[in-house]
Every structure is written in C-alpha cells, then in structure tokens.
Design a protein that fits this description.
mainly alpha; 3% strand; two-stranded antiparallel sheet; globular; 16 helices; 380 residues
Length: 380
C-alpha cells in the first residue's frame, strides 16, 4: 500500500492477487538485475524530482538547508531500493498493472534466506495460528525484540522488510517471482502473519512507548518502513545534517498521503480496482493527472476539521478521513523520529502526541513542516 500509488504512476505497480505456492523445502533465491529497467529509472527520476521540489519549497532561501535536504533525499532513494518486476498477463487480471515491486528489495531478498529470519517467520506464524481470533494478545515490537536477542535495530529491520506492505502484499508476489523454488511453507507463513497484521488481530502493532500517542491503525508500514529508512539515512549522514534524516522520510510519507487522497477523492472508502465504477469515479487511471499531481504536489492551506471538507484529500466522510489521513501522516512523523533516535542512540527524543500534532498540522501543513523539519530542528 505504501508504495502502491507512487509506483503505479511511475512503473505501474499496483494491487495484485496473491498466488498460491507449491510446497518445497529449500529456499533458492535469484538476484535482481543490477541494471535498472526503464520503469525503475522513471520511478527514481520522478521521486527525485518531486523531493527536490519539496526541498526547495520548505527550505525557502536557506541554501545550506536545501543542500542538506537534497543530500538526504538522494540517500532516501538509495536506501529504499525500490525495484519492480513484470508480471505475465496470464498471471494477473485485466485491471491489474503488469508490475509488482518492493522497497529495500535486495536487502529483503537477502534477509528471507537467513536462517534466523526464517525461524522468526515460522515461530511468529505458529503463534498467530495458536491465537487466531485473539486481539492484542502480544505486542509486535516486543515480540520481535525478544526473537532478535533484544537488538532494536534488528527488530526494526525485520518488521520493515517482512511486513512492508500488509495491504496489497505486492512484495510477496515480488518474492515469489524471484524465488520460484522457495519454500511454500515459508511464504505462506509470512502471508499468515501479514494478514493478521492487516486485520489487526493477535498483535498490538507499535512499540509500547507509543501506546497513548498513536491512534488505532493497521497501516504500520507508515511507521516501520519510514523508521528504517530514517535510520539508514542517519547512519549514512553520520551526524552531518542529521535532522534531515527525519525530515525527508516524513515529507516523503506526507506527500504520498496528499497524492493518494487526491486520487481517490469522491469515495468514502479505499477504491476497488476490480470495480469499473470505482475506477471511473476516481482519477486513478487518469495518467496525465496522476503524474502531474505526483510531480508537482501542493500543500493544503488549512485542514478544516469537523466541517465540510475543504482540503484536496478528504473523502466524503470528513470524520472517517480525518482519522485515516492524520493517522498515516502521524505514523510517518513518529516513525522518522524513532528511526533517527535508534541511529543517534537516544536523540532526538519522543515525538509530540497525536492530538497536538493534529492541531498544529491542520492549522498549517506547510507551516508545520517548515517550522519542525526545515528550521534546523528535529520535528519536535
């Protein structure tokens, strides 16, 4: 879900039908081509162009800040390592794009072959099976931390790689294409845990320190994927321009939300791409429009809460979208700080709580980003 709409425009990545797997006993992974495809180059160029424009917008006349932002933006593209693979026409439905993809692609491929990762997937899936139907039986972060020898970086890595898209599951189809003889049990186990996360069953999804900060949301990839990207950028920067290690992933996630909600404006739910009516009612298939909105995103001046929606990314049901939009943006905000804090061993501390965030962000989205991300401070 996180990469679905963006790559849909740039490389055609979208929703897919998760295939069944044949049973095998050995994991044999192929490697991704080192040379990027034309679609992947288009993705990289599009995201780089968009992020550079955001850097210029929020930095204003501060040349040093803009340079730091653009350096972090280049690192974001490097660490995300978004890759895609073609899907044969016979293996997809007529309305489905002909590509599937993943972020952290090469690292995910390497991780899935690690014995420790395979054991983690197996034990976690067995736990989900044993507690099927339960709600909040365990905490995903604490559970993963226990199975990762209390290493928070490894815990973040496992969740970000293995559960990076628990709505569309395109990354699992991506793994299937690169692992034709992979263990059917391993990939089914991964799917079982992913569906449990998507359905908000068995696990509370976020670190306990965020229990009273993050609202009820299944979109954990907005937190963990952004956190891992921010962590990796902060490590690359090694203290130089570190605030941008949090700011750029946060801006990327926020821009994604602007873009996604503009495309599906007019519906009171996530669109069903198999429905002709839904496709016609949204602008998902209007490629010139989607490309323009992605490359030249705009900030709403103000989000009017509890009234008729006036901003460009609300559903018809303002109250429903109020929670959906701000949860996803707040998750990226909190995740970015969480990742940088891991890299910097304690700094920059805890994010503001959800209610304060909503209040300040809704008053002026652009002002919030400029004030908390581009004024030489850490988003707090």
């Amino acid at each position: 879900m996180f990469v679905k709409y963006i790559i849909f425009v740039c490389v055609g990545l979208g929703l897919g039908v998760f295939p069944s797997f044949a049973d095998d006993s050995q994991v044999v992974l192929q490697t991704l081509p080192k040379k990027l495809s034309a679609q992947e180059k288009a993705l990289g160029a599009g995201v780089k162009f968009m992020l550079n424009r955001r850097c210029s917008r929020y930095s204003r006349s501060r040349k040093e800040t803009k340079a730091e932002c653009r350096r972090a933006a280049a690192l974001l593209m490097k660490v995300l390592d978004a890759r895609s693979l073609p899907v044969a026409k016979k293996n997809r439905r007529s309305y489905e794009p002909n590509f599937v993809g993943a972020v952290f692609a090469n690292e995910t491929l390497a991780a899935i072959a690690e014995p420790g990762i395979q054991e983690y997937i197996r034990v976690t899936a067995d736990f989900v099976r044993a507690h099927r139907g339960g709600v909040g039986v365990a905490n995903l972060w604490d559970w993963t931390l226990t199975l990762s020898n209390q290493d928070p970086v490894e815990s973040l890595r496992r969740i970000a790689l293995l559960f990076q898209d628990t709505d569309a599951f395109a990354y699992l189809r991506f793994l299937k294409l690169l692992a034709p003889t992979a263990s059917g049990r391993l990939l089914r186990d991964l799917e079982i845990v992913g569906h449990s996360i998507r359905d908000q069953k068995v696990f509370d999804l976020y670190p306990t320190e965020f229990k009273n900060k993050i609202q009820y949301s299944r979109a954990q990839y907005h937190f963990y994927v952004i956190a891992y990207a921010a962590y990796k950028i902060a490590r690359e920067l090694d203290g130089r321009g570190a605030p941008m290690a949090a700011a750029v992933p946060f801006v990327f996630n926020t821009t994604y939300e602007y873009f996604r909600h503009k495309l599906i404006r007019g519906l009171d739910r996530v669109p069903d791409l198999s429905s002709r009516k839904d496709r016609e009612q949204t602008r998902l298939l209007d490629i010139p429009y989607t490309a323009r909105e992605f490359l030249y995103p705009s900030d709403p001046k103000k989000v009017e809460l509890g009234s008729e929606p006036t901003n460009p990314f609300l559903y018809n049901d303002a109250e429903t979208e109020y929670h959906d939009m701000f949860n996803d943006i707040y998750l990226g905000y909190a995740g970015a700080l969480f990742g940088v804090r891991l890299a910097n061993r304690g700094e920059p501390g805890f994010p503001m709580d959800y209610k304060r965030f909503v209040r300040e962000f809704s008053e002026s989205p652009r002002g919030f980003i400029e004030r908390h991300s581009f004024a030489g401070s850490y988003l707090k």
